[in-house]
Design brief:
- The protein is mostly helical.
- The chain has two domains: about 130 residues, no CATH class; about 130 residues, no CATH class.
- About 65% of the residues lie in helices and about 5% in strands.
- A two-stranded antiparallel ribbon has the order 1-2.
- β1 and β2 form a beta hairpin.
Length: about 300
Amino acid sequence: MTALRWILSPAVEGVPRRQALASAALRILVGLMWLYNVSWKRPPSFGQESGKGVFGFTTDAVDHPVFPPFSWLVEHVVLPNFTAFGWSVLVVETGLAVALLTGAYVRLAALVGIAQSLAIGLSVAQTPGEWPWSYWLMVGVHVALVFSAAGTVLAVDSLRADRGRSWRSLALGWGVVVSVAAVSALTMSLGEDPLDSSGARLGGPGLSIGLGSYNVLGSVLLLVCGLSLLAAALISVRACALVATVAGAGAAIVLYAQSASSDSVLGGTNTSAAFFGSVAVVGVAVWSIGRGRSGAPQSTPDQAQATS
């Protein structure tokens, strides 16, 4: 129980500020990796019809074995139940992206990331053209996050640790990032069909990093999320974050519901859905964990000492 309590506790041990910032940057970088890569986990076939995508990488475990017992498991358990497996991969990797980007339950997410990285490595590390160290480094970076203070900066874990006193900084940081992303997508989408199924892409395949795709409607909805978080921070009314929660969760549900077809009313992908989901997590954390502190200014240590 002690180990489980530690895993579920906020990843915010006392470390020098620069170390906490570096750990947070590493967490966000890994979160962006998972965020980008959920885009090609396409239901309902997950590549089974074309032999590519998740299905192609999974069959590599059998065609190019890394660890024979794992290859046997893939051949006799995973492939006969591939549709369920494909959905589980999408859910796990979406959860990793959301948890690491938002800094929510960082240690638990990092442990899941270790397992997922091992599974990927054991599937494709011996495939021609792959660099095996990519996957061992993925394992290593998640191990580092387990024992880091990566939940100290711009993280839901920070709110959990200080009982919501830092909710404004989280809302402000995410509000700025989401608003800038939304304005960028909206600028690129202007003049196009507001309901175009393939919206403007924030990022691209060249560097394998991005925040998803959004048409005019998707961009406006994303802007609503960003402005709601900014309003919560700037006017100190955490209830504004509920708008971001509802809008973000609703958009994520719509995008996932349409992920099996080529028609997306918001012009997005699974990456867009995961980014909206991250916004929803931040919104609900700001609202719920920051409860009771919306009108009370944070006191500095000197002020607290002066009043004691």
